[in-house]
Amino acid sequence: MKRAVVRIGDRRVGSGEPVFVIAEIGINHNGSLELARKLVDGAYLAGADAVKFQKRTPERCVPREQWDLPRDTPWGRMTYIDYRRRTELGMREFAALDRHCRERGILWFASCWDEESVDFIERFDPPCYKVASASLTDDDLLLKLRQTGRPLILSTGMSTLEEIAHAVMIAAGTGREKLLLAHATSTYPCPPTDLNLKMIETLGRRYPECPIGYSGHETGLAPTWAAVALGASFVERHITLDRAMWGSDQAASVEVGGFMRLVANIRDVEKSLGDGVKRVYAGELAQIAKLRRVKTPVQAVAAVAS
Q1: CB 46 within 8 Å of CB 64
Q2: Are both 213 and 301 inside the same structural domain?
Q3: pLDDT tens digit string along 210-237?
């Protein structure tokens, strides 16, 4: 069977390749360019392969009946639509972040929540796009993203298998060579009982042409390492400078020190998985000589040679 591999920027993502680690900055920058820069630096320091932002047109994404609802924010009490505008990065900020990421050699892309946002991000020639779980049923947005011709990561939280199949059909059309699927549960933070990591294997069986990954929103790191052991070819976790900061995603995020552990241990898990072929390693020969009372002829010779 052909290996499921998709090229994102200068990286090959999929079976047999190193795990592609995405640090989801999302909206954890709270509208601050300086905070966004620090989050990029934290992701780079941790060894992430890419950072991801979110981009919305507030007037398109916030239902009209919610615009004038009052909201308490770090900047005072304001309407919900003004709050959403306040936390959105514009052209100046994204241009600065584009330079910042390029200087550090780290990829960046975005989840676009509406068609206008796709046009906005297209100006920066992103290596791929991400579809948030909330947008999986938005056919118009999927078609818009498909028309860019770029690789597309489809997150599958809050969705049925039927909805996922429909989204794959719309997003990929007749070819799935640029489509990646991410298992996710859209609870923030997500309890371990709802993570259902074995869905990584289920998606792999249903969509063998697509690299399968994991987008995690749990507290802690162990489930993400387990996802890699189960075959996730890419992982995405939210990154923050402080989980106690203002913002809906901060509590389900990983601080920079934790992200460093996350990436380092992902690399250890990769090394430890091996290839499934049983062999006697050189380091075991001394133990054969010292501990095994009955040796096979081959082991006896090998033990003496060591």
Answers
A1: no
A2: no
A3: 999 999 999 999 999 999 999 999 999 9
